[in-house]
Amino acid sequence: MQDLTGDYDGAARCWQESLGTYRELGDNMSIALELDNLGQLAVRVGDYQRAATLLEQCLELVHGTPSVILPLALFNLGDLEAAQGNAQKAHDLYQQSLDLFQEMGNQWWLLW
Question: Which domains, ranges and CATH numbers included, belong to the chain?
C-alpha cells in the first residue's frame, strides 16, 4: 500500500523486512517476490543499477520453476530497459513475459 501512495521509503522498509524474514525461513519463492518488489521500486525511483541487481537475483531464484514471479520479473526488467531508453530490449522482455502469462492461461494464480 505504501508503494501505491508514494511512500517509497516506507514500502522499501516493509519489503526489506519481509525479505529478511523469508531468508531466515528459507522461502525462496517469497524471497523472489520481495526481490521483484524491491526491483520494481528501484526502477520507479531511478536507481537502475540496484533494480538490475535485485531483478537478476529474483530471476536466479525462480529460473526453472513454475511461478508467476518469473513473468512479473521479466516485465519489471522490461520497465527497467524502457526507463533506460532500450526500447527493443524492453519489447523483447515484455513479449517474454506475455508469452509466459499466456502459457499459464487462466490458472496462473495456482502457480503462486
Answer: 8-111 (1.25.40.10)
